[in-house]
Design brief:
By secondary structure, the chain is of the alpha+beta class. Helices cover 44% and strands 27% of the residues.
Length: 569
């Protein structure tokens, strides 16, 4: 028999792991009813977990999407294994996003398929990025071919993997005759050995090599060149090979061209940097803004061509705009006075061109008369930290075994419900319930079975309450329901339906049927049975005991004291 605390911790860990996954996850039974979703699903789709439970895709999504979802679910149920296919998902803002669905069936302990779990990976940005990457690659190839200096790429084994047109012309070979060959196949042996030694040193030390050399061109003449060689890396940081460029400095004109190319290369690096860069003088005149900056703030560069334009758009609140301006001026004064070259990193709220307010880190670097402003969007990081805080707060208010609210949350929420009811002169029904002969189930089948029974009851209770109602685990096998704006008669009808549903449950443990499961319920109401939560809960608990004494598996109403006859039910 496993430790119930360990099982509870395992269940909590599984829930935390699923909720920590940043992609939407949903699981459904074989009829297509939602059994649960993770936090990312709620956040992206704008549909709460409670609103989904027991519903089908046809209750939630547009029909064209629902038909596709259901067909994909049936395919996963009929053909076990991983199913991966593209599709669309409607986000909370109404937009449709391109996603890649991963579906697979999951089974019960007895091996029978119980339902489908689906994960949606948002690939909208990836597809857009892939298209952009293809455009950039084509542009890079064209750009390299326009550069008059020879450029080449080698792998770690010294085989050429690419080059530009200038390199072809210098060597007198076509690209197809160069790629896959080594320096020994193209240049004189002595020169190839020199290249091999330089390649080995560069691969071992990394960094950049700059050196002079005299090399023969295809026409047989020797040229004085300056080699610039560096390693290029894989995404994981490992060295992938060597990229090299050499400038012919035989004539001064070539030296001038090499200088312009160096400046252009620096501009391209800044232009394609993953952070926003803006270059101004100390008076605020903007000289340069890179493309990433415009992408981050969602403004065309011609709309933020001056510092005044930028501040008016990015900081529309006059008081906040004045505060930012004062801080920037103070930072520059401090750097000039102290000789420091960089300001502290600070965070600002930027109103962007798409209407969103984003959190950005800003740091200023002073170089002679120029100021480099670097902006880094930290909105996602801040939201993730806030989401984590909210998750931790939510977990502190939920029972880890049943996922219902715990006693701590009940005490807070029932006070609020009673206060609202007092102001609006509305009733509040309070239900106390427990599982009949629960100890017998634990004794006969073990605590694991008892935990499963508690979880099953919790799902029934939570799936049959309205939005605004509260279902909580009071302790042990006791549960409490708080039903705002509900009379005691309406509550009796609703709770009787729950009572009947629980009686019809079929539960087995390790293949052995548990037998009939029943619950007893006691109902009291504000203000009929008391004007405080404590009084009404006490009345509901007394009614629960009446239901127990009357034979269990039934619903009992609290007794209301009367002046003339003592008590009546």
């Amino acid at each position: 028999m496993s430790d119930p605390d360990e099982t509870a911790r395992g269940g909590l860990l599984a829930k935390q792991l699923i909720d920590a996954i940043p992609s939407p996850i949903a699981y459904k039974d074989i009829q297509g009813r939602y059994l649960g979703v993770n936090k990312a699903f709620e956040a992206y789709c704008g549909v709460s977990r409670d609103a989904l439970l027991g519903k089908t895709v046809y209750d939630i999504w547009p029909k064209d999407l629902a038909d596709g979802y259901r067909a994909a679910d049936l395919e996963a149920l009929q053909h076990p294994g991983a199913h991966i296919h593209p599709g669309e998902l409607v986000y909370g803002d109404g937009s449709r996003r391109q996603v890649m669905f991963h579906r697979t069936a999951f089974s019960r302990d007895d091996g029978r398929i119980a339902g489908v779990i689906a994960i949606a990976w948002d690939v909208t940005d990836r597809l857009r990025a892939e298209r952009d990457l293809q455009d950039e690659l084509r542009f890079a190839e064209q750009m390299l071919d326009t550069i008059p200096s020879p450029i080449f790429f080698k792998d770690k084994n010294g085989e050429y993997r690419g080059c530009n047109r200038a390199f072809e012309e210098f060597c007198g070979l076509k690209r197809g005759d160069i790629i896959g060959k080594t320096a020994f196949d193209i240049f004189p042996r002595a020169l190839a050995e020199t290249y091999q030694v330089a390649d080995k040193a560069l691969l071992e030390k990394g960094g950049v090599q700059v050196h002079d050399a005299v090399i023969p061109a295809a026409d047989g003449t020797n040229h004085d060149v300056i080699f610039h060689r560096a390693v290029f890396r894989k995404e994981d940081g490992g060295i992938n090979g060597i990229i090299g460029v050499f400038w012919d400095v035989t004539e001064p004109k070539r030296a001038e061209q090499a200088l312009r190319r160096s400046e252009e290369r620096f501009r391209r690096i800044v232009e394609n940097a993953p952070f926003g860069v803006r270059l101004t003088d100390q008076k605020g005149t903007i000289y340069f803004t890179n493309r990433r900056f415009a992408e981050m703030v969602h403004y065309p560069l011609d709309q933020i061509a001056t510092l005044q334009q930028w501040r008016l758009l990015a900081y529309p609140d006059p008081a906040y705009r004045a505060e930012i301006k004062a801080v920037e001026e103070k930072e520059l004064e401090h750097m000039l006075a102290t000789g420091q070259t960089s300001s502290p990193v600070r965070e600002v709220r930027v109103t962007c061109g798409d209407g969103l307010v984003r959190d950005m880190e800003v740091v200023a670097t002073l170089d002679d008369n120029l100021v480099y402003w670097v902006f880094n969007d930290v909105t996602a990081r801040n939201r993730a930290e806030q989401a984590l805080r909210e998750v931790l707060q939510a977990e502190a208010l939920h029972d880890p075994l049943t996922a219902l609210f715990n006693r701590r949350y009940l005490d807070q929420e029932i006070e609020r419900d009673f206060a609202r009811a007092a102001r609006a002169h509305k009733p509040v029904a309070v239900v106390m319930a427990d599982i009949d002969r629960f100890k017998s189930v634990n004794d006969a089948y073990g605590h694991d079975c008892g935990d499963r029974l508690l979880q099953t009851i919790a799902r029934v209770l939570s799936s049959h309450i309205r939005q605004g109602d509260t279902a909580s685990r009071y302790g042990g096998d006791e549960f409490t329901l708080v039903l705002p704006e509900t009379t005691i008669d309406v509550a009796r009808q609703r709770i009787q339906h729950m009572c009947d549903m629980i009686r019809d449950l079929s539960l087995s443990c390790d293949g052995k049927p548990v037998g009939a499961v029943t619950m007893s319920f006691g109902i009291a109401a504000y203000p009929r049975h008391g004007d405080t939560p404590e009084a009404v809960i006490k009345a509901a608990d007394a009614a629960l005991q009446d239901a127990k004494r009357a034979g269990r598996g039934r619903v009992a109403l609290a007794r209301t004291p009367t002046p003339d006859s003592g008590e009546k039910t």
